[in-house]
Design brief:
two-stranded parallel sheet, alpha/beta, three-stranded parallel beta sheet
Length: 136
């Protein structure tokens, strides 16, 4: 997250870091130097809720189980209409191949409409273009 924070800062953005005690206890880190506003939460679940509810759009870069959990939760909240529809853009071929496999294996349980809530982009430039062209 430090590289993303630095890039956003250098591009003139106001960097908000959503931190939590759970992650800091596990990894012994705190907010990075580029964070200008910290939203501190106690638990990982509270952190995910703050990230998801506090954004107008989400761009997910390649990541691990935490990123997958954030994607799945935001997507599911949009599917059940607990969260208004907003851009959810997944960057990198890994996310597309992972979800293609998911759709292929579990397509019976996955109607077409929720699939439309996710957009795939090969790189960050394509993700920004998707965001600029987003139609709610």
């Amino acid at each position: 997250m430090e590289a993303v924070s630095r890039g956003a800062h250098e591009a003139g953005g106001h960097v908000i870091g959503v931190t939590c005690e759970d992650i800091e206890a596990w990894r012994k880190v705190s907010k990075n130097a580029w964070v200008k506003e910290e939203w501190r939460r106690k638990t990982l679940v509270q952190r995910m809720q703050a990230i998801i509810e506090g954004c107008d759009a989400a761009i997910a870069l390649p990541g691990g189980v935490g990123t997958l959990a954030e994607i799945a939760l935001m997507w599911n909240l949009m599917v059940v209409e607990s969260l208004h529809r907003r851009p959810l853009i997944l960057v990198g071929s890994g996310w597309q191949s992972t979800l293609d496999q998911f759709f292929s294996s579990f397509g019976y349980y996955m109607p077409a409409r929720p699939r439309e809530d996710i957009t795939f982009a090969l790189d960050i430039k394509a993700a920004v273009m998707e965001l600029e062209n987003y139609q709610a």
